[in-house]
Amino acid sequence: EAGVAQSPRYKIIEKRQSVAFWCNPISGHATLYWYQQILGQGPKLLIQFQNNGVVDDSQLPKDRFSAERLKGVDSTLKIQPAKLEDSAVYLCASSTGTAQETQYFGPGTRLLVL
Amino acid sequence: GNSVTQMEGPVTLSEEAFLTINCTYTATGYPSLFWYVQYPGEGLQLLLKATKADDKGSNKGFEATYRKETTSFHLEKGSVQVSDSAVYFCASMDTGRRALTFGSGTRLQVQP
What we know:
The structure holds two protein chains of two kinds. By secondary structure, chain A is mainly β. Chain A is 0% helix and 48% strand.
């Protein structure tokens, strides 16, 4: 079974530029998560989708971050404009959507904002 | 909101030593508890989990018991190997929310 796919793996941009990350979850997984992991910290949830609807985006900085999951499969996370403090690893995870389910993580996209 | 606190690293051990990584949580209800591991250059992988009080999760020689009275979920292994060198994350999942709340991670280095 294929795992969670993410691209690109690495991205370097200058502040105030835009960037987009892509995630393809495990086939059949209804729930998709985006986490931000700053160096030396644990991952922090940015947004959670159930199929193509948003369940929780309370910690998403909506003035600069946006995310969508069209057709309930792939998802894109965008930052516009980027700030220095956005330098982090962006992790995508998916799960079946049942109670107490295991979340499966992708390899992450490492973003460096200069 | 929920939070998870785990011991700071790095933890450096010799091969075959006993490992304990402490983890405590705060929650309004009775969350599910998890340990995830991140090997060098790889993504997060579930190591073990427990969904209710007194449950014991186990995998690859690692164990952790859900202790409601001390709000803890300490990770243990009787004899570590060099291949166990990784970063270990404790996490909780609120039953109403389903997203994971992670601790800051503990780096384990096992020397031969």
